[in-house]
Amino acid sequence: MTNVLPEPVTTIPNPFRMDYTYVAGAGRSMFLRGLAERKLIARRCAGCGQVYLPPPEFCSRCLTELEAPFELDGRGAISTFCVVSFPFPGQRIDPPYVVAHIQPHGAGTRLMHLVREIEPEDVHIGLEVEPVWVPDDELDTSLLSISHFRPTTEGGADA
Amino acid sequence: MSRNVAVTGVGQSKQAKRREVSIGGMVREAVTEAMADAELTFDDIDAVVLSKTPDLFDGVMNPELYLADAMGSVGLPVIRVFTGGSVGGHAAIYGAHLVQAGLAERVLVVAYSKESEGNFTWALSRGLPFSPPLGAGAGGHFAPVIREYIQRSNAPEHIGWQVAVNHRLNATRNPYAHVHRPDITVEEVRDSRMLWDPIRYLESCPSSDGSCAIVVTGEEHAERAPRPPAWIHGMAWRTETGHFAGRDEVNPRAGQECAADAYRQAGIDDPAAQVDVAELYIPYSWYEPIWLENIGLAEEGGGWKLVDDGTTAFGGDLPINPSGGVLSGNPTGATGLLRFAEAALQVREMAGEHQVDGASRAIGHAMGGASQFHALWVVGSGEPGAA
Rounded CA gap, A7 and B299, in Å? Predict the structure, then answer.
């Protein structure tokens, strides 16, 4: 016998894809539609006084229905952040870049988003930031309608 | 508790990248070891509980069906427990609840992940309208929380490096651990690559394949078990949503209340003094002080001092993760059950080279999601209520 057996097959790639139908619910749908119009829609809980951004229908603390929606301008302070410092496949931005938890003024919740237009080493907890919206033709029912946050400027956020 | 419940069997596989074995084969390794430890056959088992993180992580849908032969569960009731990284802890408690409620006499709890066969990052990166695609991964979620902890507690930065060294040295005494670095130093951790500032490479958990299984029984069987049982003195789980106004992710309320409930059941009012050893879910080194404070083993702002003075090192007064913990092996679906099982091994005095001398009461703890899911049990060498 001169035949040499091939190397045994130990793995086979088996790619698959998943499509999601995401149902946002009545409360968050209102928030998402607001994003497409450059609006940040919040709601307050009458029970505990906390303000949700994005707002669900019910307060997670009190389980009571939230009050009528109102608008916040998105200016806020950095609660905390990290600096993504290494490259990985599919990355959209060259590292290092800052991902922050931002507490919009008037809200009891935090948004997670990019902070740009500042060097990462100059970012600190408490830094005042404002949203930078994408151009009109890129607005969508998604947080991607906000391109990133940047240190608050004198004139206020781009309108 | 209405009825005493104990762990009488523990099994686990080697944690590693396990390309030479199938998922079923790897699960069977832990099941066989746990059944042998309890000296039971599948005929003795009344129900099986499977712990597993989301199916997408390793690409097998409904693994509770696929694994029926590997778990010996053909013809038995099977429950799949499903949270995040905490899932193994929840499954252990679920199994104990079945016995406590009188629905089963002996329950086999099984857990695994085979991350080398899937694409964890892809599975976690679903495009949802509330999550801008920041591509930051799991560490990108926890790193800001760590920064906030450091800011609040004024902890010096070497604490994270020291925890990483402690746990990796502990792992050298655990042959099942994935990562073995007997020569690791604080300087090496400090100089390792920055991933998500402030988290460095050597302060992060690995991605592992591995399995774990335990047998849970009522007191009638536990008292006749061939080896010492680990009696469950208290157990609790609590969940909070990942996004609510006023949420404190550095010190989540669900974690505090989960621990307080378990301590109350166990008759513990000073956990740091009344517990000998703890296995905590610490995927990044700074989570040691964070959880010490959250579950009441240290005062708020003081967790890092127990790292600094050596209290939590092997040989200290309150050793944390003598097995090497999550930093030394992280098969996510099994990681929580491993913490609960390692706590049981300690009070059974069956932890081998990483046995803590005289451990009679131990904590097993698991956390999942964005610190939303919390599970904790206190196990002891003595039967609760016994003289």
Answer: 58
- Two structure tokens written together for B36: 């042998």
Q: Check residue A16 and give its pLDDT.
A: 74
Residue of B nearest to A12 (CA): B117
B244 contacts A143? CB cut-off 8 A? no
**B28-37 pLDDT tens trace:** 999 999 999 9
Domain boundaries, chain A: 25-151
Residue type at position B139: G
pLDDT at B387 over 50: no
ipTM score of the complex? 0.89
Any idea what DSSP says for residue B16?
B
Name the residue of chain A whose CA is nearest to B131's CA. Answer: A143
CB atoms within 10 A of CB B386: 9
Sheet arrangement for strand A51-52: A51-52, A40-44, A70-72
How many Å lie between the alpha carbon of B61 and the closest alpha carbon of chain A? 12
* Confidence (pTM): 0.95
Phi-psi region of A76 (alpha: psi -120 to 50; beta: other; left: phi over 0): beta
B chain contacts of residue A101, beta-carbon cutoff 8 Å: 144, 148
Calpha distance B306→B136 (Å, rounded): 30
Q: Are B340 and B57 in contact (CB under 8 A)?
A: no
Domains and CATH numbers, chain B: 5-116+206-380 (3.40.47.10)
Interchain proximity A85–B135, CB inside 8 Å: no
Q: In terms of CA atoms, which chain B residue is nearest residue A33?
A: B129
Token pair for B377: 């049990």
To the nearest whole Å, the CA of A15 is away from the closest chain B CA by: 9
Cβ-based contacts of A52 with chain B (< 8 Å): 244-245
**How far is CA B375 from its chain centroid?**
9
Distance CA B47, CA B52 (A): 16
Please give the structure tokens belonging to residue A117. 């237009």
CB contact under 8 A, A82 and B136: yes
A-chain residues near B131 (CB < 8 A): 112, 143
Q: Chain A residue with minimal CA distance to B126?
A: A20
B353: exposed, middle or buried (C-beta count within 10 Å: 0-12, 13-18, 19+)? exposed
Distance (Å, whole) CA B239 – CA B287: 18
Cα of B357 to nearest chain A Cα, Å: 40
